[in-house]
Automatic annotation (TrEMBL):
<dbReference type="InterPro" id="IPR015422">
    <property type="entry name" value="PyrdxlP-dep_Trfase_small"/>
</dbReference>
<feature type="modified residue" description="N6-(pyridoxal phosphate)lysine">
    <location>
        <position position="247"/>
    </location>
</feature>
<dbReference type="GO" id="GO:0045303">
    <property type="term" value="F:diaminobutyrate-2-oxoglutarate transaminase activity"/>
</dbReference>
<keyword id="KW-0028">Amino-acid biosynthesis</keyword>
<dbReference type="GO" id="GO:0030170">
    <property type="term" value="F:pyridoxal phosphate binding"/>
</dbReference>
<feature type="binding site">
    <location>
        <position position="131"/>
    </location>
    <ligand>
        <name>pyridoxal 5'-phosphate</name>
    </ligand>
</feature>
<comment type="similarity">
    <text>Belongs to the class-III pyridoxal-phosphate-dependent aminotransferase family. ArgD subfamily.</text>
</comment>
<feature type="binding site">
    <location>
        <position position="276"/>
    </location>
    <ligand>
        <name>pyridoxal 5'-phosphate</name>
    </ligand>
</feature>
<feature type="binding site">
    <location>
        <begin position="99"/>
        <end position="100"/>
    </location>
    <ligand>
        <name>pyridoxal 5'-phosphate</name>
    </ligand>
</feature>
<keyword id="KW-0808">Transferase</keyword>
<dbReference type="GO" id="GO:0003992">
    <property type="term" value="F:N2-acetyl-L-ornithine:2-oxoglutarate 5-aminotransferase activity"/>
</dbReference>
<dbReference type="InterPro" id="IPR015424">
    <property type="entry name" value="PyrdxlP-dep_Trfase"/>
</dbReference>
<keyword id="KW-0055">Arginine biosynthesis</keyword>
<comment type="pathway">
    <text>Amino-acid biosynthesis; L-arginine biosynthesis; N(2)-acetyl-L-ornithine from L-glutamate: step 4/4.</text>
</comment>
<comment type="subunit">
    <text>Homodimer.</text>
</comment>
<comment type="pathway">
    <text>Amine and polyamine biosynthesis; ectoine biosynthesis; L-ectoine from L-aspartate 4-semialdehyde: step 1/3.</text>
</comment>
<dbReference type="InterPro" id="IPR005814">
    <property type="entry name" value="Aminotrans_3"/>
</dbReference>
Length: 410
């Protein structure tokens, strides 16, 4: 490479690999070396890389109209809003460009809801180990002191309780009369792939009803089919008041959405919130294409089937590995918690197995493969991981056609 990272801020710890093209779950670097993508750009490219229908939607719309302004009506935005509301049971949408912005909109809705109830200092209940973004408000909502360090003073207005603990929520309700909303992930992704039990989400719904709090579900990582339902909270059969989306909504084209229903629907009045780029014709058309493809190909259902295959495979290959503490997941969100710091595995998986993985919370391998993987690719992910974690790991990538997960673990 002629260029180096010397003119980029050091916000990321980057691997020394750069990809030049992709197809489905496969990526190639400039030397033509092929890699298997088990993270999909962190739950973004769920339809895989270079999906021809997405490429066509982008190029056709780019030749027609990229951007006008939210000063005007935008047909694709109206269409996308209607489709997302139909899928979630929400009533209205606000569009932005990222997950953090979608959560910012939700946090602002919660404060408006509080002020409408005459609560002067509205508090929002958030969870330990939760992740909601990197802007100052969403960082303040995030339950990870390591990510917050250095950015104090954080934003006031958050009360934090342990995840999956309804008693803690009840105690907070008794102690903090100014709580007006709950912000929660159905599966904590950055938090180590922690899946909320259906009873927990139902309990939160009941407590929100009881106290007139908005139930705001952050579906930015778990939504859009990844957990085996269109949205993670749907496994619990509940309807939130606010749902936030981003990541896979544009399959790599930046777009975020904050959806609301009931008393949250019309909290914003004209001029109270906005985004220059948010909901432009290009982004909304791409997201409509994403929904077309996901619906036509039953990708949420496919994520459920492939997810079972992935978790079963991981369990067989690594369940009795001495370093493995737990294997968890839902659909195509899987975590393998190790008994040690395993950040070095990201680089080793790339170099030795040509496999893209991430590690979260320093000790949990996180897998977020594209929903369009085939069964062989899921088995291949398992085989390469088993090879990576085997005590006698050699340098070459595992040969999936000759190595079943069981053999690789042996
Ligand atoms: C990624 C993520 C965000 C932040 O999204 P950005 O697009 O990076 O701002 C928020 N919440 C959850 C659950 C996420 O996984």
């Amino acid at each position: 490479m002629q260029y180096h990272a010397s003119h980029l801020m050091r916000a990321y710890a980057r691997q020394p690999v750069s990809f030049v093209r992709g197809s489905g779950a496969r990526l190639w670097d400039a030397q033509g070396v092929e890699y298997l993508d088990a993270i999909a750009g962190i739950a973004v490219t769920s339809l895989g890389h270079a999906h021809p229908e997405i490429a066509a939607a982008i190029s056709e719309q780019a030749g027609l109209l990229l951007h006008t302004s939210n000063v005007f009506r935008i047909d694709w935005q109206e269409r996308l809003g209607a489709r997302l509301c139909a899928l979630t049971g929400m009533q209205k949408a606000f569009f932005c460009n990222s997950g953090a912005e979608a959560n910012e909109a939700a946090l602002k809705l919660a404060r408006l809801h509080g002020h409408r109830k005459q609560v002067a200092q509205p508090q929002i209940l958030v969870m330990e180990n939760g992740f909601h973004g990197r802007t100052l408000a969403t960082l303040s909502a995030t339950g990870n002191p390591a990510k917050q360090r250095g950015f104090e003073p954080l934003m006031p207005g958050f009360v934090r309780v342990p995840y999956s603990d309804l008693d803690a929520v009840r105690q907070a309700a008794a102690r903090w009369p100014d709580i007006v909303a709950v912000l929660v992930e159905p599966v904590q992704g950055e938090g180590g792939i922690r899946v909320a039990a259906a009873d927990y989400l139902r309990g939160l719904r009941a407590l929100c009803d009881q106290h007139d709090w908005l139930l705001m579900v952050d579906e930015i990582q778990a939504g859009m089919g990844r957990t085996g339902a269109w949205f993670g909270h749907q496994h619990a059969g509940i309807t939130p008041d606010v749902v936030t989306l981003a990541k896979a909504l544009g399959n790599g084209f930046p777009i975020g959405a904050c959806l609301a229903r009931g008393q949250a629907t019309d909290l914003f009045s004209p001029g109270q919130h906005g985004s220059t780029f948010g909901g432009n014709p290009l982004a909304c058309r791409v997201a409509c294409s994403v929904l077309d493809i996901m619906a036509r190909e039953n990708l949420p259902e496919r994520a459920a089937l492939l997810g079972t295959r992935l978790l079963d495979g991981l369990q067989r290959a690594l369940g009795s590995h001495p370093d493995v503490v737990a294997i968890r997941g839902q659909g195509l969100m899987a975590g393998i918690e190790l008994n040690r710091n395993c950040n070095e595995l990201v680089g080793r998986a790339l170099a030795e197995q040509h496999l893209l993985i991430t590690v979260t919370r320093d000790n949990t391998i996180r897998l977020l493969p594209p929903l369009v993987c085939d069964e062989a690719q899921i088995d291949d992910i398992v085989a390469r991981l088993a090879h990576l974690l085997s005590p006698t790991a050699s340098d070459g990538p595992a040969a999936p056609s000759e190595t079943t997960p069981q053999e690789a673990a042996a």
